[in-house]
Amino acid sequence: MGRLVDGKWLTTDLGADERGRFVRRAAKFRGRVSSGSPFEPATGRYHLYVSAACGWSHRVLMTRQLLGLESCLPVTFADAFMGEQGWVFPASETTPTEPHEPSGLVPPGFVPPGFVPHQGPLFELYVRHQADYTGRVSVPVLWDKQRSCIVTNESADLVQDLNSAFAQFSSDPVAASKLDLYPTGEQQRIEAMILANYGPINNGVYRAGFAGNQSAHEEAVRAVP
Questions:
Q1: Which among 2, 43, 76, 207 is least buried, having the fewest CB atoms inside 10 angstroms?
Q2: Domain coordinates of the chain in residue numbers?
Q3: Would residue 46 show up in a list of annotated catalytic residues for this protein?
Q4: What residues contact 48, with CB distance under 8 A and at least 6 apart?
Q5: Residue 8: strand pairing partners
Q6: Topology at the third CATH level for domain 3-183
Q7: Can you tell me the mean pLDDT for 18-37?
Q8: pTM assigned to the model
């Protein structure tokens, strides 16, 4: 997968534990979009970087579409294949990278002067945010065009913010107002469901795919329901 160490890109991974088992590191950027915070809700202020090959990106993209936020929150897709440079964004400013959104990488009318979606390896965007960053370079990433920084690379936080802070900008505000994906009375049940699926399924496939040896791989595969 590769990683950054003090802002330098290395093709070696962070490594498994002593038994070769994949160990997930927690997301390091956990900013939240909310009124009164440094990241105020706004249409066109933020840009989303994702990959169609990433399950964590899928949950964000589905929430974005369900709430009608396509015009509010433009998106750029990385190449589906992750090579030695990690996630890489194609060098094109005009060719749409998202199916069914013919307006291109950034819908017109929402882009601050001079803003161009990042092209090239995603790790360069991480280093732009924090020059000495150490850790994995993952998607999804929510980028703040105004402050020129990463807001969050934690998909669980991002889907909640889309549901709360961004829903007011929906292309169908009436429908969005009726579609609360995180209702107060159901939050405990939702979190319990997420927790029940995270270990064996969401993270389970990563434990299988990025195991450090055959024994750890077989152990992880057997644990996937």
A1: 43
A2: 3-183, 186-220
A3: no
A4: 60, 64, 73, 74, 75, 76, 140, 141, 142, 143
A5: 5
A6: Glutaredoxin (3.40.30)
A7: 85
A8: 0.84
For residue 25, give the nearest of 5, 41, 48 by alpha carbon: 5
Q: Which residues contact 52 (CB under 8 A, 6 or more apart)?
A: 77, 80
Please list, residue by residue across 44-60, b when 16 or more beta carbons sit within 10 angstroms of its beta carbon and e when fewer do. Answer: bbbbbbbbeebebbebb
The rounded distance, in Å, linking the Cα atoms of 179 and 149 is 30
| DSSP assignment letter at 129 | H
DSSP conformation class of 119: -
Active site residue 72: no
48-97 pLDDT tens trace? 999 999 989 999 999 999 999 999 999 999 998 888 999 999 875 443 33
Q: How far is CA 164 from CA 150, 160, 219, in A?
A: 19, 6, 39
- Which entry of 49, 133, 182, 206 is annotated as an active-site residue? 206
106 band by pLDDT with thresholds 50, 70 and 90: very low
